[in-house]
Structures are given as structure tokens and as C-alpha cells.
Amino acid sequence: MRVASIIVAAGRGSRAGSAGGVPKQYWPIGGVPMVAHAIDAFAVHPAVGDILVVIHPDDTVRYEAAARPFAGRLRPPVQGGSTRQESVRAGLEALAASAPHRVLIHDAARPFLDAPLIDRVLAGLEAHPAALPCLPVTDTLKRASAGRVTGTVDRRELWRAQTPQGFSYEAILAAHRAAAKEVALGEFTDDAGLAQWFGLEVALVEGSEANRKLTSAEDLAIADGLVQFRGGRKGPVMRVGSGYDVHAFGRGDAVILCGVAIPHHKKLIGHSDADVGLHALTDALLGTLGDGDIGAHFPPSDDRWRGAASELFLKDAARRLAARGGEIVHVDLTFLCEAPRIGPYRDQMRARLAEMLGLELSQVSVKATTNEGLGFIGRGEGIAAMATATVSLP
């Protein structure tokens, strides 16, 4: 039974105000954009296959940044319409080719849905074409006019509707297409209401108090504080990776270290340009991702990399980190050699590394030491390099 989810994130969130013009669905909650919390809940649920987010056309860059940690898990985003109803229909139409059996439609403004809630909605679809998570109204409700209370509303049959709302995919798609043709119909406030208009029976399932809709700046502040207090869904975490590499000397007239050619009466021998510093640093970055080492991605048995500039390897590792939503905080590189002297070229190496990785010079450290005449390094047979990379990951 294929299950897809649509997250509606195309609104402007005017009631929530703005932070530098940022719509509320991209405001950070615990250091993570609101919409990413909703994506995460569906991404980790074993029953959910396709995940599609409907966005505003002005939010492409913001969405790409928020969705980066879920690379490979999301369908391409769809641009929404001028109303929520149009946005949902755009999402449903985009799923037509994959034709899921069921679809869960959720508002990005409810970032705290969880697996048990999704399970209850899916269970409601076992015997019904639609399922709506609800909570009973517990406050006393009053009717008023002209600033004066005119009566009390009976709350016994009143419920607070939530999302995700679940549907038979074919049924809700047909309902949205039919509603789009009724010009005088007006807009429905949710998909369950549209489904009822179309004649679908909607099952009521238990909602979740945690699954509150965030509509104001105050809501966002409370949610952010709550996440930080509970220690859940926190912001970025720090990871440190290390790398080590060594290359022997051979006949030549220069040594390439960190992309800088240093005059010397020997050169380093290797399948590529033998830039021992960049090799060590590439392994350090890959280490922060748990993504193997340089040999796994650029094996020496592959002639494509014969004589290649090691800058390609380093930039590939940086690209893999960026695809996971990570950022490099600092890199530290130490060379172990008797010769050539590293000191006169240290600043040039730092500048090249900063350029390759898009970093500030202050984020790059290059050092060197001898081996006090001991071992193969002490005998001048080669150069070793140790690297440490500190990164920030969602």
C-alpha cells in the first residue's frame, strides 16, 4: 500500500510576522527550519514513501537549504497557488504519475507531528476514504455581537481539526478537480471539508496536543524554547574527522602541497599529483560524514585520476558535506617532513585551502614539524600529513 505525503508550505504566514522577511515555515525552531521538522517526521516513518513539499515561488533558495539534509528522500518541490486549496491540488497533480494508494496532507505550520499520529490517520483509512485527526474542544465557547456576549455554545459535538489529514489518493484528487470547476463554490478551510462536500465519509481519529498549529510570533518563540528545554530536535551538531596520508619522494623538481608548487630537488610519487596535504584533509572531511575514504571514491586503479589535481578530491568531499546540510567550521593540517621548508609557503597554502573550500583565512590552519631525524621521514624518504576537520551538521 503506497503512501505519499504532501506538506503545504506555500503561505506567507502574515499573522506570525516576519524575521527579515522570512516566512514562518522557515523560521528556526531549535535551530532547524519549521518545515524541516515536518519533513523529518514523514521521512523517518516506515509507511511513507513519496514526500512532496508545495512551496511559494519566492522561497526556492530557503526551501533548498531546509531540505538539504533530506537529499534523495524528497520529490522535487511544487509551486503553490494563490490559495491553500490551489496549492494542495498542485501537489496532488504532481503525484499523479506515481499514483499512490493513500496520501497524507499536512500543513508546515504544524511541525510537531509524530509517528503515532501518522499511524492513527493511516489506521482510519483502513475502512474509510478519509481520516481527520481531531481533539475535543475543552474551553467554554461564547457567542458575541457588538462587543457583548449573547450566549454559550454547546461544545459537546465540537472538535478541533488538525493535519495530517489522510485520504484515498484517487478520491481526494477527484474531489479537488471537481471543486476547481465550481467557480461559485468558494474556498474550503481544509481538505476534510472539501472531501465531505464531494460526498466522502470522513473518519475521526485522535489528534495530538503537541501537534499545535503555530500562527503567531509568540507561538514560534514558545515552540523554540520548548524544543531547547526538552533537548529534542536540536540545532546543528559538531563533528570532528581526522585524516592521515603519506607519500614517498621520487625524482623531480617540485613538491605540490595544498595546491602550491614548492621548489625541491625531489617530488612526491602517487597516482594523482600526490598532494599529501589535500589527501589527508579529504579523508578528514569524509570522516565527519562516515563516508569512507579517498580511495573508496577515487581508487588508484582508475586511470581517470592518474595525475589528477587533488583539489578535485577535496572539493568533492566538501560537496558531499554541503549536500548533507553541513558547513566546515575549521580545518587544521600538519606536515611531517625534514624538507622542504614549509614556513615560507604556509600563508600561500592557507589562502589556497580557503579558496578551495570557500572559507575565511581564519578557519584554516597549516603547520609543520620534523621527525627529529627518526624513521623514513627523518631519513628524508617522504612526507606525511595529518589533518583534522571540524564541521557543523544538522
Keyphrases for this structure?
five-stranded mixed sheet, 394 residues, elongated, eight-stranded mixed sheet, 60s Ribosomal Protein L30, Chain: A, 2 domains, 12 helices, Spore Coat Polysaccharide Biosynthesis Protein SpsA, Chain A
Architecture overview:
- The chain has 394 residues and is of the alpha/beta class.
- The protein has 2 domains: 3-230, Spore Coat Polysaccharide Biosynthesis Protein SpsA, Chain A (Alpha-Beta Complex), CATH 3.90.550; 237-393, 2-Layer Sandwich (60s Ribosomal Protein L30, Chain: A), CATH 3.30.1330.50.
- It has 12 helices and 19 strands.
- It has helices at 34-43, 60-67, 84-94, 115-124, 169-181, 191-197, 217-230, 276-289, 294-297, 311-323, 346-357, 375-378, and strands spanning 3-9, 28-29, 32-33, 48-55, 78-79, 102-107, 130-136, 141-145, 148-153, 159-161, 165-168, 202-206, 237-251, 254-257, 260-263, 266-268, 327-336, 364-369, 382-393.
- Strands 1, 4, 5, 6, 7, 10, 11 and 12 form an 8-stranded mixed beta sheet that branches. Strands 16-13-19-17-18 form a 5-stranded mixed beta sheet. It has a two-stranded antiparallel ribbon with strand order 2-3.
- α5 packs across α6.
- The radius of gyration is 28 Å and the shape is elongated.
Topology:
Elements: E1 3-9, E2 28-29, E3 32-33, H1 34-43, E4 48-55, H2 60-67, E5 78-79, H3 84-94, E6 102-107, H4 115-124, E7 130-136, E8 141-145, E9 148-153, E10 159-161, E11 165-168, H5 169-181, H6 191-197, E12 202-206, H7 217-230, E13 237-251, E14 254-257, E15 260-263, E16 266-268, H8 276-289, H9 294-297, H10 311-323, E17 327-336, H11 346-357, E18 364-369, H12 375-378, E19 382-393
Parallel strand pairs: 1-4, 1-6, 4-5, 7-12, 17-18
Antiparallel strand pairs: 2-3, 6-11, 7-10, 7-11, 8-9, 13-16, 13-19, 14-15, 17-19
Helix pairs in contact: 3-5, 5-6, 8-10
